[in-house]
Design brief:
The protein has a five-stranded mixed β-sheet with strand order 4-3-2-1-5. A three-stranded antiparallel β-sheet has the order 6-7-10. It contains 13 helices and 17 strands. It has two domains: about 150 residues, 3-Layer(aba) Sandwich (Creatine Amidinohydrolase, Chain A, domain 1); about 280 residues, Creatine Amidinohydrolase (Alpha-Beta Complex), CATH 3.90.230.
C-alpha cells in the first residue's frame, strides 16, 4: 500500500499547500502553524486519556504523535518539528520515515520548549491551529475563523490520497464486522463479540475511530449503546453492530443488523431496510440536496412500515404527523473523513455561514448539497424505542399503528444499516459494499 500512497500523497500535499495559501491570504496571515496537540490528563490523576492528534495535523501527515508541529509558509517547503523526547516511561516515537518524509524539512527536538522555540517568531502574523491550552507558553492557538472556515469547507472534498486511506479503513472495518457476525452466530456475549471485532481489525479500542456499538436483542433500540454485557442472553434474537476502522487517521463508519436463525419476521424487515438503504446510497450524486434525501428516506421508510403492517396510514401522513420520526429518530447520515462526524456539514460557503436543518429534523448532521469528492454516511434505521412509542400512543394517530405487531418486534430492538459513500462525477462509490465484496 505504501507504493500506492507515495504518488497520491505528493498530489495531496500540493492541494493542501494551495488551500493553505488561499486561507492565509483570506485571514491576512504569513504562516500556518499546526499543533499536533498534547494528551489530556485525567482529572485528579497522573494518567492521560488516549491521545488523538489534531485532525488538521493528520490532514498533512499520517502521524499520531503529541507535542509536534507543522509550519507552512507560502512559497517554502513545509517544516515538521518532531518531538522525540528522552523518556524511559513510554515508547518514544521512531525517527520519521516513509513516503512523506522527502516533502518536509524535519527538525527533531527533545522537549516541548525546544519545539516552540523553532516556530515562527511571535511578532509575525501566525495562524496557529490547535487546542487552546498548550502546555508550553509562547504558542497559544488563535484558530482564526476565516482560516478555519476556508480549510474546513475544502476538507469536505477528499483527495485521491484520502480516498485510498478511506478504502483501507473500510477494509479494516468490514473484515472485523464479518468476525463479529460469526461471533454472534456462535452465541457470544456482547463483550465476546467486541473482542472478536478487535482481533479481526487488529486495532485496540483507542485506535478505532469511535466507541463500538455492539447490541444484542432489545439493546439495539439504544442508539448509542456502549455497555457490553459480559453474559450472553438466554436467546440471541438480533444483533446490531455499529463499528469502524482507522487508516492513518481516516475513519470508516459501518453498521449492520442481523436476525438469528428462525426469526423470519425480523429478517424480512431487515431485508426491506437494506433495499431502501441501497436506494438512498445510489442517490449520492452531484447536485443532490442532503436534507431532501433525508426527507425522501422518511417517505420510503414509511412505506416499509406499511408493507410490514406496522402502520396503516399513508406515507405522507406518517411523515407529516411525526410517526416516522418515532421509528427513525436520527439523521440519514453525516460527512466522514478524518473525523467520524467530519467538519463543515452545515457550512454555507468557504467563508462560513450555516445552512439550517429542515424543521422537525433536529438530529440531521448535514445540510449541504452533495458535490464530487464528498464522502457521507447513509444510515437509515427503524427502531422500537419505548420512550418514543409511548409518545405516539398518546396521539390520535395511535389508532393507525398495529400495536400488537410493534409488541412482537420490540424484543429485537431495532435496525440500522450504514455505508460510507463517495460522491463522484457519475455513479457513487460505495466504500463499504465494495470492501464487503472483497471478503465474499
Amino acid at each position: 500500500m505504501q507504493d500506492r500512497l507515495a504518488p497520491l500523497y505528493s498530489q495531496h500535499l500540493a492541494t493542501l499547500r494551495e488551500r493553505a495559501d488561499k486561507a492565509l491570504a483570506l485571514g491576512n496571515f504569513d504562516h500556518l502553524v499546526i499543533a499536533s496537540g498534547t494528551p489530556l490528563r485525567k482529572f485528579l490523576d497522573d494518567q492521560d486519556y488516549p491521545f488523538v492528534a489534531n485532525p488538521h495535523f493528520r490532514h498533512w501527515l499520517p502521524l499520531n504523535i503529541p507535542g509536534s508541529w507543522i509550519v507552512y509558509t507560502p512559497g517554502h517547503k513545509p517544516k515538521l518539528i518532531f518531538l522525540q523526547p528522552k523518556d524511559y516511561w513510554h515508547v518514544v516515537p521512531a525517527a520519521p520515515s516513509g513516503y512523506w518524509v522527502e516533502h518536509f524539512d524535519i527538525e527533531i527536538v527533545r522537549d516541548a520548549t525546544d519545539a516552540v522555540a523553532l516556530l515562527p517568531n511571535a511578532n509575525t502574523r501566525r495562524a496557529i491551529i490547535g487546542p487552546e491550552c498548550p502546555t508550553v507558553p509562547g504558542a497559544e492557538a488563535n484558530n482564526p475563523q476565516a482560516v478555519l472556515d476556508y480549510l474546513h469547507w475544502h476538507r469536505s472534498y477528499k483527495t485521491p490520497y484520502e480516498l485510498e486511506l478511506m478504502r483501507e479503513a473500510s477494509r479494516v472495518g468490514t473484515r472485523a464486522h464479518r468476525a463479529a457476525e460469526q461471533a454472534f452466530r456462535a452465541g457470544e456475549s456482547e463483550i465476546g463479540i467486541h473482542m472478536a471485532y478487535l482481533a479481526a481489525a487488529d486495532q485496540i479500542d483507542a485506535e478505532l475511530p469511535y466507541a463500538s456499538i455492539v447490541a444484542l436483542n432489545e439493546h439495539g433500540a439504544v442508539l448509542h449503546y456502549t455497555h457490553f454485557d459480559r453474559k450472553a442472553p438466554a436467546q440471541s434474537r438480533s444483533f446490531l453492530i455499529d463499528a469502524g476502522g482507522s487508516a492513518a487517521g481516516y475513519a470508516s463508519d459501518i453498521t449492520r443488523t442481523y436476525a438469528a436463525q428462525g426469526h423470519a419476521e425480523f429478517q424480512a424487515l431487515i431485508d426491506s431496510v437494506d433495499v431502501a438503504q441501497r436506494g438512498f446510497a445510489a442517490k449520492v450524486r452531484a447536485g443532490q440536496s442532503y436534507p431532501e434525501l433525508h426527507i425522501h428516506a422518511h417517505h420510503v421508510l414509511a412505506e416499509v412500515l406499511r408493507e410490514h403492517g406496522i402502520i396503516r396510514m399513508s406515507a405522507e401522513s406518517a411523515v407529516s404527523s411525526g410517526v416516522t420520526s418515532a421509528f427513525f429518530p436520527h439523521g440519514l447520515g453525516h460527512p466522514i473523513g478524518l473525523q467520524v462526524h467530519d467538519v463543515a456539514g452545515f457550512q454555507a460557503s468557504e467563508t462560513g455561514g450555516t445552512i439550517a436543518r429542515p424543521q422537525g429534523h433536529p438530529y440531521l448532521r448535514m445540510t449541504r448539497v452533495l458535490e464530487p469528492g464528498m464522502v457521507v454516511t447513509i444510515e437509515p434505521g427503524l427502531y422500537f424505542i419505548d420512550m418514543l412509542l409511548e409518545e405516539v400512543r398518546a396521539k390520535p394517530v395511535s389508532s393507525e399503528i398495529d400495536w400488537a405487531r410493534v409488541e412482537r418486534l420490540r424484543p429485537y430492538g431495532g435496525i440500522r444499516i450504514e455505508d460510507d459513500v463517495v460522491c463522484t462525477d457519475g455513479e457513487p462509490e460505495n466504500l463499504t459494499r465494495d470492501a464487503f465484496a472483497l471478503i465474499g
